[in-house]
Amino acid sequence: MNDMLILVAAVFLPLFPFSMLFNALHSGLRPPILRALLLLLWPQVGLLIIDHNGLTPPGWLLAWAVLSSLLYALRALALREVGMWIGFLATSSWALIWLMLDQGLGAERLARVALGISVPLVMLSILAAGLERRFGAAYLGLYGGLAQSMPRFAIMLVLVVLAVIATPLFPGFFAMLSMMIATMPSAPLLAVAIGVIWLLWSWAGARLLQGLIVGPKTQAVDDLGGLGLGLYILLLAALIASSGYWLEAIV
Amino acid sequence: MDKLIALVPAIPVASAILIQLMAGRMQRRMAWLSVLATALTFLITVVILALELAGEGGFQLSLADGWGILISDPLSAIMGVLIAGISFIVHLYSIRYMSEEPGYARFFVLLDLMTASLLVLVAAADLLSLLMAWHAIGVLLYFLLGFDTQRQSTFRYAFWTFITYRLGDIALILAAAVLYHAYGSWRLDEIFAAIQAEPQVMSLLGLSATTVAAGFLALGAFARSAQFLLHNWLPYTMDGPTPVSALMHAGIVNAGGFLINRFAPVFVHSSDILHLLFIVGLVTAVIGSVLMLTQNDIKKALGYSTMGQMGFMIMELGVGAFSLAIYHLIAHGLFKGTLFLGAGGVIGDARRDDGVPKDDIYTFVVERRSARRRPPWLIMAIITLAIPALVLFVAHWAVSSEFYHQQGAVVLLFFGWVTGAQLIFATYRMRSENSGRLLALILFSFTVVVVGYTLISHVFELFLYPDAAFRSLIHSASSIDVLWFDILIVITTIVIVVGWLRTYYAQRNGKRGGLLAGRLWLSFYTLISREFYVADIYAWFARQLLRLAERLNIWLRWV
After folding, report:
1. Would you say B159 and A206 are in contact if contact means Cβ atoms under 8 Å apart?
2. In whole angstroms, what separates CA A193 from the centre of its chain?
3. In a shared domain, residues B19 and B109
4. Residue in A214, A247, A251 nearest the CB of B149
5. B409 in any annotated domain
């Protein structure tokens, strides 16, 4: 029964091939609000199943989780559609939560981990919706030059992508750090694999930014408004502030 | 006084925030705000260094319990002055240099944040702060190098830097994980004290924690300091703005040397890793210098020169000359920063006048100048042999009676002799109207080179590592078996002397090698001109990965 429940949880904390379900659903949903809700709630459902049934992941599942994460991080390199990129990065990040489950962290902390990963993805999803509204598609290399045509939007895009790929001060950085620290003594190969995943995220993030913000100005479009900018700054500040919680947890 | 340390990174951060908020209102004047902030930061770092020199330093400030700890010790004080000083010059230079560029305010914001991150890095006394600053530098450098957002090429090469730095970042995290697990603390002082008490705590694969951590730290340093196989990004970052190149070559790329010095208590228990540093540094120094000599672009040549210098710095660390590596990175930072900031002017001058001297017949017959002569080679040979002997004698008398017994000191003296003799050989081939003056300059340069490697290293060592027991631990960790050491020195000397003699006779008799030698030389030149195919191999590997990702996506229907 427990194995069965773990497989169900593996749909929500997506492990390959169950992860295909989430990505198909995410690609199929067009309204930004539904996409945002999906990104926020999907991993929480998985965590709820695990917590409610008191499940502990078996040892073999950890390697599966890391390989799933690695697969999606690698596949994200070849993507040009921003929505799909978000789905793959979400899959790659959430799969690693299984490693934290193995550390016996409390349900509340794990929920925060998932939230810390989901919020930047939601922010990116809303920015992608903005691109679709302005250009008809959120697609790398199709128009480019956002730094010229929409400087405020470009700055927010850069900061959100940095949050997604787990750079310092954002919660993802501390989540990855604590995962590597936890796995290093018992499974050093897994720790190195997490490092490789992190490297692939950085590569994918750089490709995304280069495909969108670099290049000459192609057409005149509206930049991010004052309210939107303020909201994004507030959310990013909240994300950075929440890192204090992580630091306390690590120390 | 403890708050002084917090002010050092806080001032540039405040400047960055103010510029971002007030850029619209202040227009281009806001650059002066940034310059003033950096000048103030520089002054504070000078005060901190002065207090350290006076023995009144040793400040510490904790932002939280167990992390966010900043300290002032001799290493952080001297590095702080270097970073703030170079950053101040770069800021000042950028005011006019960047004035025509769009994104003027963004440039100064990034420059200020980079300065703050570098200052946090050198003052960090816990692993978490150090990791955050180390990561932030890589990210900020990516955006500084890719400052011109209109050109894809700038971002392409900035990406090479970014991904190499990320590799080093991850190595550093692995090192931190090993140290934290073995010694149970994030604080560097506690970790170092625990290492001193129990250095051989076992970690992975039957290796001690210090060896594993030192291995990862070395990898992090290699990536940051462009050591061979992780060097490709460095010469190709010239598409970035010149001030960024200056700051990068003067204050960022040498962070590898700083890192190893900061973790010296880990490295003294990892002899094998110190030997690895020596080998990697040696290979990098040779390859960097060879590649530098074949460039016809001044900025790319400077890039490869930095690679060679970084190799030399890592090699110094490998022979246990930790403090000399700091002296080297400071000296290199100053002269390379100057060269980069002056490169534009040199290119401009060269367009007006190539500066190639006219030949001897022209100057003698048309300009009626006296014939230029070479200094007698016998005198040059005597200088080559006599000066190191003299320095050895002076060092023995002035520095320490133990000087001869330190392998690191002998190796450095040896390299001082090799580089000095190389200089003599190069200048011997020069002809001058005033050979006496040339001879005096040669003598002076040679003395500076050799003395630099002995007396200055000693002074720096006393300042950075005042504990004599720790100094001797560094030297013993970097030593190898005496017999092997002597054999290596003798073989290297023979190779160098034979090389000199061959070059001398080839020059004198005007002989060129045979057909086979010519072909070999041509193949070697092709290899160098393609930069040993390292970039091609990486590009091929990246293409294969992208192709694999694409195929996987097609097979799995993009979900």
Report:
1. yes
2. 17
3. yes
4. A214
5. yes
Q: Do residue B397 and residue B495 come from a single domain?
A: yes
The residue written with tokens 């017959």 in the block is B365
Please answer yes or no on whether A214 and B553 come within 8 Å at the CB atom: no
Q: How far is CA A157 from the centre of its chain?
A: 14
Contact across the interface for B162 and A206, Cβ inside 8 Å: yes
The tens digit of pLDDT for each residue in B312-370 reads 999 999 988 899 899 999 999 998 888 888 877 777 777 777 666 566 666 666 666 66
Q: Does residue B364 lie in a domain region? A: no
- Taking only residues 235 to 294 of chain B, the set having a beta carbon closer than 8 angstroms to any beta carbon of chain A reads none
C-beta atoms surrounding B355 within 10 Å: 8
pLDDT tens track for B379-423 = 766 776 677 677 667 666 665 556 555 666 677 667 767 766 666
List A139's β-bridge partners, or say none. A81
Residues of B in contact with A27 (CB under 8 A): 558-559
Say whether residue B177 is in contact with chain A using an 8 A CB cutoff.
Answer: yes
Chain B residues with CB under 8 Å of A247 CB are: 64, 67, 128
Q: Does B329 lie in the same domain as B396? A: no
Q: Are residues B481 and B525 in the same domain?
A: no
Q: Look at residue B364 in the predicted model and tell me its pLDDT.
A: 64
B136 close to A (CB below 8 A): yes
B121-149: average pLDDT: 96
pLDDT of residue B404: 56
Distance from CA of A103 to the nearest CA of B (A): 15
Query: What is the model's pLDDT at position A147?
Result: 93
Q: Is residue B139 part of a domain?
A: no
Phi first, then psi, for residue B162 (nearest 5°) are -60, -50
Name the residue with higher pLDDT: B500 or A190.
Answer: A190
Global ipTM: 0.95
Q: Which of B65, B174, B556 sits opposite A20 (nearest CB)?
A: B556
Select the residue of A27, A185, A199 nearest B181 (Cβ to Cβ). Answer: A185
Interface size between A and B, measured as CB pairs under 8 A: 117
Q: Please report whether residue B366 resides in a domain.
A: no
- The burial class, CB within 10 Å (0-12 / 13-18 / 19+), for A136 is exposed
Q: Are strands B60-62 and B69-71 parallel, antiparallel or unpaired?
A: antiparallel
What are the start-end ranges of the E strands in B106-216? none
* Cβ neighbours of residue B446 closer than 8 Å, sequence gap 6 or more: B383, B384, B387, B420, B421, B423, B424
